[in-house]
């Protein structure tokens, strides 16, 4: 049995975990990131980053790596498959707060852009968490992380970025995420000789489902299909070939040939199918999102359905806000992050939670309701809610939630607190 002591431990090397590590790195604090997989996981193939995400990436100093590669999408077309009518929507948001626009990126590219900002020994892969505990000695608390290989890590700060089924969230006492009653199929289509599509986002809405595709570059197209699951759930088929065949057969006479052609070009290694999970908004608002020197970020805090496209975006916001509050504590304590007394790390994490919980509660609520309305049934009331109320009046609000600036990281110039000589945690 090996005992290791670390200042900051982040569990999970997804978007939230890597972004948080980068934020801390900018403050001169080195974190250890524990990842259960043997490499960076890009499940989901791609994602769309809204203006708020690009502002967060600006604060982290990595946005330029992606904006130079991925072009913005300026138009969104939504086709009602019942009537055949196509509506053009704008995601521009509020004037003057549009960041780098709406751009869709390969998830792997985003993860690599973040990981490249970290020292080589930051991420420890194949690290499976067996248990989490806490220890208090002489008024100071520490998180105890037990790994599957019998290694024990004693951390002065623990940040859970370990996804929908977070062990850290469970340790904090947060309720389990629940099934939204819908599932999603996602994949990446590859056209070796080019797809010839415009840089537009296209969605197709039918009874009980919403499908769409988004070109990433001249060759790759990200596509998705969100649909209601049977009341008692559904068997989630894992075989990509069977998933592709099922979608093509079931929607052959429903979805347009252009969309079906995208599915037929799917790289099966990127194709996934999973239930859409979320945490009840009141559990976020009133739950324990931090305790002492432990907190959560990203899906570990606020799993949400993808209907506003804010899962990854809000995770990037979390990283900047968390970094800012830790950085402010660092400044107040002259380059030290203290774990007891005034302006200690626990108080910094409480301030982070206070700032984040209302926004992410609204995002979770808005995402769920947006999906519920857009996947509406065929009766007149649901059609009215979707086609008149939502798209004419509420869609603008859902787009504007993406025009949000989470702020900047503080400038920490206290001698020893720089990237080469990390701040001390006492």
From TrEMBL:
GO MF entries: FAD binding; monooxygenase activity
Highest taxon above the source species: Eukaryota
Keyword Oxidoreductase set for record: yes
Family: Belongs to the 3-hydroxybenzoate 6-hydroxylase family.
Keywords annotated in UniProt: Monooxygenase, Oxidoreductase
Species, as recorded: Citrus clementina
Protein name, as recorded: FAD-binding domain-containing protein
Domain called FAD-binding: residue spans: 7-328
